[in-house]
Design goal:
Helices cover 49% and strands 18% of the residues. It is an alpha+beta fold and 272 residues long. Strands 2-1-11-10-7-8 form a six-stranded antiparallel β-sheet, with no helix packed on it. It has a five-stranded mixed β-sheet with strand order 4-3-5-6-9. Helix 2 runs parallel beside helix 4.
Length: 272
């Protein structure tokens, strides 16, 4: 049966109707093109394997079904499931055809044959093309992640330099300098080793970049907290702050501050 992928995270609803296998991603040759920096070139593939509709994710793709993490792939979809791809949400709905009783017998053999053809085509595509696409997507996502980390560290450093120090407070000035020196150290590492980082190393780098960006975004609040607690050791404060971020940056915080961003430091680098 045909199915619908209706975008629900925007005011202008985008409705897409499909009957076979659908390749979803930000690349122009995908069946469903989603232009978002959080969607991989080939993010996922939706297909039907009788009697189920299944969703297969690309490596490192951020996907949730009904706001829950998927523990086993491919995932089986149910009617009206909410699929989150990066920062984009779609509602999956099955179109149930209503055929008059008088026509059911006449079209039963035709429908059975058509469904069999679709099933065989989907199986063929999965066996031959999906492994190739997943390998290509992994290579593209690694290159994209490396480039993004190199660009983002310069953006974060520029924002950090522009942070204001309330009342020229010397302790807060030292705090700002400590954050900036950590960012400079990471930038130096990326310039030297960025092209040789593995995907896991790149993910770690961008994870800590996310923490730094979080500090920059909430700088006035951190300064106020810093003054109220009369903390004199800037390095100790930053260390405890990063430990707090590691415990509290769950999926809701990630969605609020740059959904599905992967920042951080590489293996062997200093924990910033």
């Amino acid at each position: 049966m045909p199915y619908v992928l209706k975008r629900i995270d925007t005011e202008t609803s985008e409705v897409n109707i499909y009957a076979g296998t659908v390749k979803i991603g930000s690349r122009d040759d995908c069946d469903l093109v989603v232009k978002s920096e959080y969607v991989l070139p080939v993010h996922a593939e939706l297909y039907r394997q009788m009697p189920e509709y299944r969703l297969a994710a690309s490596h490192s793709a951020f996907i949730e079904i009904n706001n829950k993490e998927v523990l086993k792939w491919p995932a089986v979809l149910q009617d009206d499931d909410i699929i989150t791809l990066g920062d984009v949400k779609f509602r999956f709905s099955i179109i149930r055809e209503v055929i008059p009783r008088s026509k059911k017998a006449a079209f039963s053999s035709y429908l059975a044959g058509a469904l069999l053809v679709l099933l065989l085509a989907a199986e063929f595509l999965i066996m031959l093309w999906l492994p190739y696409e997943l390998r290509k997507s992994k290579t593209l996502s690694l290159a994209t992640a490396r480039q993004y980390a190199c660009r983002q560290i310069d953006i974060v450093r520029g924002r950090t330099r522009g942070l204001k120090v309330p009342d020229n407070n010397k302790d807060i000035a030292r705090l700002k300098q400590l954050v900036l020196s950590s960012e400079n150290e990471l930038a130096s590492y990326l310039r030297k080793y960025g092209r040789r980082m593995s995907l896991d190393q790149t993910i770690t780098v961008r994870s800590n970049l996310n923490k730094m960006n979080y500090i920059v975004r909430l700088w006035p609040e951190f300064c106020e907290d810093y003054k109220n607690n009369a903390v004199l050791d800037a390095e100790k404060y930053v260390k405890s702050l990063l430990e707090m971020l590691s415990r509290t940056m769950d999926k809701k915080i990630i969605e609020r501050y740059n959904k599905n961003e992967i920042y951080g430091q590489t293996q062997g680098g200093r924990n910033t």
